Backbone:
């Protein structure tokens, strides 16, 4: 029996407690404004719209007794619903903040990307920021020089490497930041879901690099993502967080199944009025409030019958050219198919929209889905306004005949329309 690899990360009974609405709003000015408002009995001017003022002053356990170990060369995916504690855990691991209780031991240098632009000084050029990040990791200038050409080539921002990064697009930020984290000498790589900003080609390139870092170079990789396909592709172990606790630690596919069973509803009605969105939704003009399907049972949806869905959408201001995506995924979250609705014009307040869907191309089986609200731009561009998990539903056959029983494992989850015979003749 082979000897176990050395431990690189050890987390023991870690807890992180926050006091809601108290000091810690991000800036000294904001904290003083919040304090002065409370002294006068006024509403906190820095509280987000819709926050329940009754919660101010209560405590919240972002992490509540988390323990695990990660060994050298492991690639571990950390998944969970919004508010489960994923980002808090990564901030503790990278010493952005300290735990309330418990111990965290890291046995190596850490390169991290927690959000776009983390660790970059906006007034400095890309090249200068590479030196800055390397110095933070304890590397000498000569060591950084030896890596510089490789970093620039991988990042694909060579023409702009001597431009201040404040002029970079979010995609350029991600490319350079990931390249720095991947190529500088560190034993541990910690990645929050920042690759979602980059283009598809670069995402694949980054995933390949992280896989090589773990398998070939022996680096330890921790990766947080809502994209289950990338978790499955990159990771050999999965940790599922829920309400600040680990509810699963083990096989990737089994972990994804646990996560998706939490995310999706086994009901024909979903209420999103209090659903916490991802922190990258900076805009809040459009929010999906609820979805109701005209179905007796979501467990046995007849593929031959159209399905009606009723959406309730809240708009703070009038919105034009709004689109709605119904994204169908398999049981482990791999995207399979999408139905679009374009050119909705929404008025301020609540808007009710009824939509009909045809699931006839889906083979019998179990599915999950996501709903996405977006606004359309010119030339096919679009901006995501809201994105929420949908329901779990089962597709069943309702017709009899001489068709074969569908083999989803070998034939896939989408059944194309039956072929039409155009001609048949004897040729010899």
Residues:
């Amino acid at each position: 029996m082979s000897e176990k690899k050395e431990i690189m990360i050890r987390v023991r009974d870690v807890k992180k407690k926050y006091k809601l609405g108290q000091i810690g709003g991000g800036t000294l000015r904001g904290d003083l404004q919040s304090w002065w408002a409370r002294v006068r009995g006024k509403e906190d001017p820095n509280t987000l719209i819709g926050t329940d003022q009754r919660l101010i002053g209560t405590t919240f356990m972002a992490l509540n007794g988390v323990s695990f170990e990660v060994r050298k060369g492991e690639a571990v995916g950390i998944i969970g619903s919004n508010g489960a504690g994923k980002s808090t855990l990564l901030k503790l691991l990278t010493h952005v903040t300290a735990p309330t209780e418990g111990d965290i031991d890291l046995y190596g240098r850490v390169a991290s990307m927690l959000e776009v632009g983390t660790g970059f000084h906006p007034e400095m050029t890309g090249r200068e920021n590479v030196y800055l990040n390397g110095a933070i990791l304890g590397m000498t200038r000569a060591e950084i020089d030896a890596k510089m050409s490789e970093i620039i080539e991988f990042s694909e921002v060579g023409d702009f490497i001597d431009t201040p990064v404040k002029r970079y697009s979010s995609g350029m930020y991600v490319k350079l930041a990931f390249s720095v984290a991947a190529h500088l000498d560190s034993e541990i790589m910690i990645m929050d879901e920042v690759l979602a900003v980059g283009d598809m080609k670069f995402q694949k390139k980054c995933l390949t690099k992280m896989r090589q870092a773990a398998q070939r170079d022996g680096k330890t990789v921790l990766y947080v993502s809502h994209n289950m396909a990338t978790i499955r592709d990159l990771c050999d172990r999965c940790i599922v967080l829920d309400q600040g606790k680990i509810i699963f630690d083990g096989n990737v596919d089994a972990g994804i199944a646990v996560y998706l069973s939490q995310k999706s509803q086994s009901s024909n009605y979903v209420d999103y009025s209090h659903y916490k969105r991802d922190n990258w939704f900076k805009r809040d003009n459009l929010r999906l409030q609820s979805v109701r399907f005209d179905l007796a049972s979501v467990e046995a949806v007849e593929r031959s019958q159209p399905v009606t869905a009723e959406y309730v959408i809240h708009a703070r201001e009038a919105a034009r050219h709004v689109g709605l995506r119904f994204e169908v995924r398999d049981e482990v979250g791999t995207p399979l198919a999408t139905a679009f609705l374009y050119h909705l014009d929404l008025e301020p307040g609540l808007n009710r929209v009824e939509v009909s869907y045809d699931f006839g191309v889906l083979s019998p089986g179990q599915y999950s889905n996501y709903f996405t609200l977006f606004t359309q731009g010119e030339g096919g561009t679009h901006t995501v306004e809201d994105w929420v998990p949908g329901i779990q539903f089962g597709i069943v056959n309702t017709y009899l005949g001489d068709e074969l029983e569908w083999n989803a494992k070998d034939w896939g989850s989408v059944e194309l329309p039956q072929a039409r015979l155009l001609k048949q003749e004897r040729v010899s």
User: Anything to note?
Assistant: DSSP finds nine helices and 19 strands in the chain. Residues 200-215 form the longest helix (16 residues).
